[in-house]
Structures are given as structure tokens and as C-alpha cells.
């Protein structure tokens, strides 16, 4: 895995199985959601098994994995396919409000509101 040193470029895409596990936990597990909102790095390492270097890359710069107010389980579940597509696609991953409450659909274009493995 390459780690992009330019913080404006966000993180490398997540491996599909990592994105699936992340979205599973964000849409169902209150303990994980609390940890992710408080310390996304710890959540990525402890619950998803990312290595420290992978976690650093995932949270680089204006990463979409940093949130101020995490979207509800229902919001994540409703946009799961789109979120998975964005998390696993090549791109900048700097839509910083992608997982924010009330912003999931808007950040994915819905109008309302290196691979890491």
C-alpha cells in the first residue's frame, strides 16, 4: 500500500472487506460508533485491524473518516451502497462531511443532506 503524503489528497481507497466491516459497525454497533466518533484511529485499528501505518493513511488530511457528529445508524444503512462505492473507489476521499449526521445523501450527490486492507 502506498501512503499519500499530500494531506489534500485524503486517504487511499479502502479494501472492500474493510469498507464492508466499517459500514456494518457504523450501522449497528453503538460501542464502535462511540469509539469511532471519539477516536477514529483507535476504532480503525482495534475493530477493523488496520495497522498503524494504514490508519495514519486513512486519516490523513481532510479525510472523509473524520467526523464532528456521526450520521445515525439509519442514515449509514440507507446509503450503504453509495458509501461503500465511495470508500472503495480511487479518489481523494476528502468529502469531510460524508459520514456527518444529516449530510450523508448530500455528500453522495443524493441532494438531501493504494488500497487499505
Description of the molecule:
With 117 residues, this protein is an all-alpha fold. The chain is built from seven helices and no strands. It is globular. The termini are close together. Residues 1-8, 93-97 and 111-117 have low confidence and may be disordered.
Low-confidence stretches: 1-8, 93-97, 111-117
End-to-end C-alpha gap: 8 Å
Report the principal-axis shape.
globular
Strand content: under 5%
* Proportion in helices: 40-55%
The class by helix and strand makeup works out as: mainly alpha
Mean pLDDT: 77
Sheet of most strands:
none
Radius of gyration: 13 Å
Oligomer: single chain
Quantity of strands, as a count: 0
Features:
disordered N terminus, 117 residues, globular, disordered C terminus, mainly alpha
Offer a quick outline of the entry.
The protein has 117 residues and is mainly alpha-helical. Helices cover 47% and strands 0% of the residues.
What is the fold's blueprint, element by element?
Layout: H1 16-26, H2 30-38, H3 40-48, H4 52-58, H5 73-78, H6 80-88, H7 104-107
Helix pairs in contact: 1-6, 2-3, 3-4
